Amino acid sequence: MKLRKLHIENYKMFKDFDISFVDKEDKPLPIIVLAGVNGSGKTTLLEYLFYYKVNESEDTLRIENKHNASYVMKKRKLYIPEMRKEYKKSIKYITVNFNKIENIKEIIRQKYIDRAFEIDKPSKALKELQDYIKDIFNGLDLTFNLSTINYNKKEVLFKDNNGVEFDIDELSTGEKTLLSKVLYLFFKGYKDNIILIDEPELSLHPSWQNKVLKIYENFAIKNNCQIIIATHSPHIIGSAKNEYIRILRKKEDGTIEAIDNLKAHGRDINSILFDVMGEVAYRPREFDDKIDRLHIAIDDRNLEEAKKRLKELKKDYGEEDEVIMEAQMLIDMFSRDE
User: Alpha-carbon distance 296 to 95, whole Å?
Assistant: First the structure.
């Protein structure tokens, strides 16, 4: 089952709101990335999809099920209650706090136990599980992999690149979060589901944020799922295909619109923050104020004052910042002219 289109007549900040979940060829997308500044309705939209009630709304939800039949769910079309039941059964809402590492440990153990009993070869079951996890995280540069599962002690042990074995509880917060987000989906066996994920970037290193979306995409395609993600992360937005991105923006009247024609794939973080997310301040205000005063001194050719201000900036922000390097170049150029 996949979503195709949604129209919300009147719900909180959504008034006469339309959003599409299909590509240019009118095929349901495997991944949709909802982006926008705080207050643009990303989480509210996920919650609306999860708690959608046909008999209390005039809104329309267009769905495509596993038989590729397109349905319209609307108040005046309650003659398809089986479709409503199928929708509620198929949709999953996952938040960052939903999956604790204890649950992931038990899921890994149970996955191993089930396979070991199925083939009656525990060592082969462990090897299959090791290869499976390694394949899932291929390209993420993780420094560990599954090592041993102790059935009696209920232990799940990993091994780092130096061959040191450790318990799953000893992983870093980011590593635990990554396991909980990704392995939960793979091991729960979700198929033909609509999966809603709120802020998958929390506790993830930016380098993992750049790559985790590809893992979700692989999962969605492999299992015929559709994953809808709400995010603030410019790293996730920049790693998403342009056709996946839906920017939620407030209009002048305070209502929300969905924009699906902005190009963000592969762009640098600053341009995503300004051009895609809106004018989001990505530097501290005090930095901008100091830079303004520095450039005033440069424009006035007060080079001693400019050098003093530049020295203060370098002390606080380093010498490799692009803006600082540009200011240094200007000071050097004007100093030679004197």
Answer: 47
Angle at Cα 40 formed by Cα 29 and Cα 250, nearest 5°?
105
Task: Centre a 10 Å sphere on the Cβ of residue 3 and count the other Cβ atoms it contains.
Answer: 22
- The tens digit of pLDDT for each residue in 98-118 reads 456 667 788 888 888 888 888
Mean pLDDT estimate for the chain: 79
- Ranking 26-35, 64-73, 277-286 by mean pLDDT, the lowest is 64-73
Q: Tokens in use for 94?
A: 């996952």
For the record, the structure tokens of 187 come out as 């091991």
Q: What is the mean pLDDT of residues 118-131?
A: 89
Could you give the C-alpha distances from 157 to 30, 111, 152, 178, 183, in angstroms and in order? 33, 15, 13, 16, 15
CA 245 to chain centre: 11
In 3D space, the residue among 180, 148, 175, 183 whose CA is nearest the CA of residue 164 turns out to be 148
Assign 3-state DSSP to the chain and report helix, strand, coil percentages, each to 5. 45, 20, 30
Instruction: Give the residue from 322, 97, 279, 76 showing the smallest Cα distance to 200.
Output: 97
74 contacts 59 by C-beta, under 8 angstroms: yes
Phi, psi (degrees; rounded to nearest 5) at 13: -80, -5
Tell me the β-bridge partners of 64: 2, 70
Residue 170 has pLDDT above 90, yes or no: no
Burial classification of residue 67, based on how many CB atoms lie within 10 Å of its CB (0-12 exposed, 13-18 middle, 19 or more buried): exposed
Four-CA torsion 138, 139, 141, 144, nearest 10 degrees: 0
Q: Is pTM, for the whole model, over 0.85?
A: no
Structure tokens at 93: 């809402």
SS3 245: strand
* Between residues 82 and 86, the one the model is more confident about: 86
